[in-house]
Amino acid sequence: MKTTHWINFLVVLGLFCSGCGGGSAPDGFPALCPLIIVVQNNGQPVDQVGFQLIPESASVAWGVAGQTGSSGEGTAMTSQGTYSGRGCPAGKFTVILTEPARLTGLEITEEESRRMTQAESDAHAAKISEARRNLPKIVPAAFGSASSNPVVVDVAQETRRIVLELSEY
Fold first, then answer.
1. CA-CA distance, 107 to 126, in Å (whole number)?
2. 166 three-state secondary structure
3. From 26's CA, which of 32, 84, 113, 156 has a CA 20 to 30 Å away?
4. Domain extent listing, the chain
5. Which superfamily does 2-100+138-168 belong to?
6. How does pLDDT run across 56-83, given as a tens digit for each residue?
7. How far apart are CA 38 and CA 52, in angstroms?
8. Alpha helix (H) ranges present in the chain?
9. Predicted pLDDT of residue 4
10. pLDDT tens, 124-135?
11. 3-state DSSP call for residue 154?
């Protein structure tokens, strides 16, 4: 179940990031409410957090996802196939968040990478992977699974912004 959510998230996020969309909405595509998700930690914006909104009804053909920018804000995008629309359908959703990609201090330039042997490159990649595993987590573990997540949001036409304060969880 958890793997399915990650796959759905990556597909929807890929469509969002690649700029796919346009044209007419597919049959059955829901009406969308403008929605900004704001992610903060101790009142400070959190950059590069991926989010996915899982609807209460599991029998939908669309997905809602996005990613925060430097202001901690991200626009919800609803996608179905290659069509993507700005906003979120009305309803109740469980919020799934993913850890932001953060630098480890071990990153190297493309030129440095080209000069490495395969063994050096593999060793360097292992160091970065280990460093990332040891970075302190920002997103509470409960946000990683729809079944354990404490946050359910109710999106209505008048809902414009939902603020998620990570320090409360």
1. 12
2. helix
3. 156
4. 2-100+138-168, 105-136
5. Immunoglobulins (2.60.40.10)
6. 876 788 999 999 999 999 999 999 989 9
7. 13
8. 2-18, 110-115, 118-134
9. 42
10. 889 888 887 887
11. strand
